[in-house]
Amino acid sequence: MQEPPGTDPWRFYDSGSIRFGALFGQTYNLSVSGFFCYILECADDTFYTGWTTDPDRRLHQHNKGRGSRYTRARRPVQLVYVEPQLDRSSAQKRERRLKALSRVKKKELIDAFAAELHQNYR
Question: Given this model, what pLDDT does residue 120 score?
């Protein structure tokens, strides 16, 4: 399925799924796919990293001020990176590694992810 013209691919949902087809080999149904690491870009251009079982729900929590103390004062936030994980332990370990990255390295990761996503939804 192609991205509708003029829409932001970060907000491209299909029946409760974020579609990452070629990037991860399938579409992930957010309610049953397991665990995810994610990076949010805050309104002040900072990044917030976390893990969740449902990126869509978690994004809405952050934007309603119920996600974390950090993002509460930096709304709105935008989902800029999502990475599926096999289990909770893997998600927590990957979250720690992502948090340890410098801002420059996080930006490189996000840019590579965005380029891949845009390439797959032309």
Answer: 78
Dihedral sign of CA atoms 87, 90, 96, 101 in order:
negative
Q: Is residue 1 part of a domain?
A: no
Q: Which domain holds residue 102?
A: 9-120
> In whole angstroms, what separates CA 10 from the centre of its chain?
8
Task: Please state whether the predicted TM-score (pTM) of the whole model is above 0.85.
Answer: no
Which whole-number Å values give the CA distances from 78 to 26, 38, 86, in the listed order? 23, 11, 24
73 with 96: CB under 8 angstroms?
no
Residue 4 lies in a domain: no
C-alpha separations of 15 from 12, 27, 29, 39 in Å: 10, 11, 8, 22
Q: What are the helix and strand counts (H, E) for the chain?
A: 5, 6
Band of pLDDT at residue 10, cut at 50, 70 and 90: very low
Q: And the tokens for 22?
A: 């070629």
Q: Domain holding 98: CATH number?
A: 3.40.1440
